[in-house]
Specification:
Blueprint (H helix, E strand, L loop, with lengths): L4 E5 L4 E5 L2 E6 L3 E5 L5 E5 L8 E10 L3 E9 L4 E8 L13 E4 L5 E5 L1
Antiparallel strand pairs: 1-4, 2-3, 2-10, 4-5, 5-9, 6-7, 7-8, 8-9
């Protein structure tokens, strides 16, 4: 594991909501801490309603995690552009986040422990 990144099992049950709808709930989420940034919760894809997500062309590269693919969240009232991301082929040091999704918290999108 990179000294810069730690990944642990997130305690309890976590939920992600967008536009008031529950997109997913998981007791198998992971918590990733990178440097001095705020922790990020990664949800197993199997616990997310993927029908609400649409893959976009946007991508980014992290020297520690690899290439991230992005998804927009489609709700009844709005589209949250590039609001979720996934490392589909992550670096070996962070392989645990493969097949997981993380979400940008913003007005209308929340990630919280329940």
């Amino acid at each position: 594991m990179s000294k810069h990144i730690t990944i642990t099992q997130a305690e309890g049950t976590w939920v992600v909501r967008a536009g008031g709808a529950v997109l997913g709930e998981s007791s198998d989420a992971l918590e990733l801490v990178e440097g001095d940034m705020a922790p990020v919760i990664y949800f197993p894809r199997s616990d997310i309603g993927m029908a609400f997500l649409e893959r976009t062309d946007h991508s980014t590269h992290c020297p520690h995690k690899g290439d991230a693919s992005y998804f927009s969240i489609m709700s009844k009232s709005t589209t949250y552009e590039n609001a979720a991301w996934s490392y589909e082929d992550p670096s070996e040091d962070v392989a645990r986040i493969k097949d997981h999704l993380a979400f940008y918290q913003q007005d209308g999108v929340t990630v919280e422990q329940v």
